[in-house]
Structures are given as C-alpha cells and as structure tokens.
Amino acid sequence: MKLLPGPLRRRGNKDDDEKKPNGNGNGATTALRRPNAPDETAKEREKEAGRERLKKTAVEVPVAALGWVDERTGGGPFLRGFLFRKVPKGTNWYYTLGSATMFAFLSQAVTGIFLAMYYRPSATEAYASVQHINDEVFLGLLVRGMHKWGATVMVILIFLHMGRTFFFGAYKYPRELNWIIGVVLLILTMVMALTGYLLPFDQRSFWATVVAANITGTGPIMGPYLADFLRGGAEFGATTLSRFYAIHMLLIPGLIAALIGAHLFLVAKLGTTAPPWLKAEKARDLSQEEI
Amino acid sequence: MTRVPVLTVKCRPQFVFPPFLTPSSNVADSSKRKKKKSPYTADRGMIGAFEGETVTRRALFSGGAAAAGGVATAAFALPALGFAIGPLFSQQNPRTLQDVGPEADFNPQTYVPKVISISTDVGDVGKTTIYVRKFDPARDTDKLNQPYVVVSTRCAHAGCPVRYVQAAQRFICPCHGGVYDFDGKVSGGPPVRPLDRFDSKVVNGRVLVGMRFSLDSDLGRHKPRDPGQHLDGLWQYIYPSRPTT
Asked: Are A107 and A199 in the same domain?
C-alpha cells in the first residue's frame, strides 16, 4: 500500500491516521490567541474550520470514489504492479521509444476523430472538404498538420522502437510473442498510412492509391482478388474512397488499440530487458556459496 | 478388464514407436495400451461419466456451446464479409459502347487522344484518356479483329497514365520509365506486358469503344488484368481473371 500515491489509497489507512495530529496544529495556535480578541478569533476559527472541512472533503471525495472502484474491481494491485514495476539497471532514453510511439498513436486517434467531424468521404466532396478544413476551420490547418505529420512521426518512431528492441536483444525468450505482436502492429500502422494517404483525394493520393492497389494485385493467385477488394471493383470507383475511409477509421484503429493493450500487458508482465552492455550481476551470497 | 489408474503423474508425452520399430521388450506394452481404449466414458475413468455413454455431458455441452457461438458468429460475419467483397462479383463498369467521334477523326499513322468513362458516379476520377488509330492491315499483324486500335493509357507496370509521343512514336510512362512502341508492346522499362486495349466497333460512321482487354507479349487476347500482372505462359494462371469479365 505504501507504493500507492495518495489518491489511490483506501480510506482509513494507517498513513492517514498518522497525519491527523499535524493537521490540528493550527487549532493549537489559535487556542493560544483566544483571550486577546474573543469575537474576531471565534469568527476566524469558524472560517478556518470551514476551510479545513472543505479541504478534507476535497481530498476525501476522490479517494472515496477511487476506493469504491477499487473495492469492486480489485484494480489496485494491478495498477500498482503496472505503474510501479521494477526496471533493470541501465534503463535509458532508448526505452522511451515504445511509449513515444504509443503517444503518436494517441495523437493520431484524437486528431483523427476531430478531422472526421469535418471530412466528407465522397469522391466528389472529399477534396473540397479537406480544403475547407485547411483554409476555413479554426485551427484546422494545425489539427490536419498534426495528423499528417504525426503519421510520418509514428512510422519513424515505430521503426526506431523496433530497432531498439532488435539491437538490445529484447525480442528473445520470453518476449518473442511481444515481438510478433509488434510486427502485427507495424503492419497495421502501414495499412493506416496507406489508407490515410488516399483521403485528401488530390492527384498525389489518387495515383498513389492506384499504384498501391496494382502492387497488391501482383501477388500470386490471391493478389488480383485482394486488389479488387481494396478498390471495391475492377476500377477505382465510387466505393473505393469510402472503403478506405472505413478501414482507416473503424477497422484498423480498434485492432491497433487492442494490440497495444496486449503489447503493454506483456511488457508489464515480463518486465524490460537490461541493455546488452550490462553484465548480469550475481547475488552476493550466491557467489560466496560458490567459493 | 483393467482400469486406468485415476491418478497419473503427467509428464512429457513420450514418443511411441510404431510397432515395426518398437524394441521387442515393449511390444506387449504398446499393444496393451491400444486395447485399453474403450468408447465408453465410464470405462475411461472420466470425471462425471455415466454408464453407457460415449460422450460426457460436459463435453457435449461445451461442444454445443462452441457450435452455437460459431453459428451465431457466422450468422453476422459471413453476410458482412460477403457484403464487403461483393463488388468482386458484380459488374460495375459501363458495359455500353461509348462514342468517341466520326471515322474521319482517325487515321492509321498516328494516335488521337480521346476521353471515355470507365467508372460511374465519381466525377472526373472515373474518366480516362485512350489513344485511337485506325487499324492498318499493311503493318498490323495482330489477329484481334478490331477495326480500330484503341490503346489504354494505363501503364502495365503500376497503372500510371502513359502519354503518346509522336516524335518517338512511343508511349512513355512518367512514373518508373516504362516505354512502349507504336503497337503498345514493351520496348523498355519495368512493364510486364503490352498496354491494354479496348474493343472497338463502327456503327453508322461513328467509332464506338467497348470493354477493356489485356494482351500478352504476342498481342494475344486475354481477359482484362490489373497492371503488373504477367500474362505469358503459365503466368496467366498465377494471375486469375475476375469472375465477372
């Protein structure tokens, strides 16, 4: 319980009880002043007491609410293990690339949701709606810019994170499954990049999508069918854009979010690896036994 | 009949030799083990077994629950999947013939660019440029039986739009440097087959353009394929045509 920060602690904890005498310290000083000006000090004391009560409820209400949830979910121990887990010696800035990727994804999710409020996924309206977002909507240029450049940042970060994992040997037993999940996440991110590229619907995105669908079609046996699935037909047609939009908005983000959850769960469960340049230290008593 | 002991220490599954490989001392053991298997759950010492049944209630119900779940999932997943891949099996492109001008517009010496619609309801996106010239029996050797040579501008490499350059008498692709000769055959770069063509027809002195078809490198006719897909020899089976064309 001591590892928990204040708000996560249950009520009636030992730590809270110890603090109570300190809280009453002010009362002692006001008591000394009482004989000098009884009326004013009484008012002041009342005010002080009121403020104290307010403070107490301000602390107690969220603690009580969290305690209520904790009592019904038993989430406390899980959160404790998740947020306050031990990390190996030598953990450094390279270990932040994974959470950096995750925050890039979160940024994409949030900006994407708000872009969807103005975007119209139809072949005749899409380009105009993107121009509208860019030129007329308040902060539209910024939010769209965040989404556009954030996509590139996410892809770069995911590769840096993958490189870190590879060069630190963090993909080895028992973390192979996490590597596999990571590879699936990489592929899903690539699908996001591909489907999102069409949505501005300018010349570049149109021809890039035509080429991408044709590259898909060069896969043996299944390729032609996959290309038709992507386009929604033999030619780039009315359904292609809405299809890409649905994949980009609804299908892949949910999968990515779920897999990030699994990825994080395994990280928390298995712990992180020490950097490869650190030699494993033997426990002192163990080495003595060997001697 | 001997009963299988209820409490067994489970360890790693051991490799059981097939009879002809089994060391002689173990032959009796392995044959015994085979005989022991009885179809009745009670004989196999399963928990919750009843006399005379071959499947325990637990197995029946968990199997039934899994099957019900599978049916329920399939009930929405299969229609949804069919809905998503439906366009593969429906003809969307205009099958009608499109008028591209009077016969007087075209000659056998050079290509004339025309615009046709290949996809409906998407505005300008559904239009594409084609190059049209008159069939020249003196120089054209293909056996396609078309009165006009109608060449698609869709590059056979990745689908970029090619343009015809009269000075070089060649089609040139801006994306990856694909080059085609006057007949649309590959003369350089990454394309894997000649440029696609369209059916043509002359009615009342007007040139009409129909459906797309693809060619192998000897200008043999094939069902339309996407760019990047080979058509020579066995390749045409590795890249199957779509069921609707």
From this structure: yes
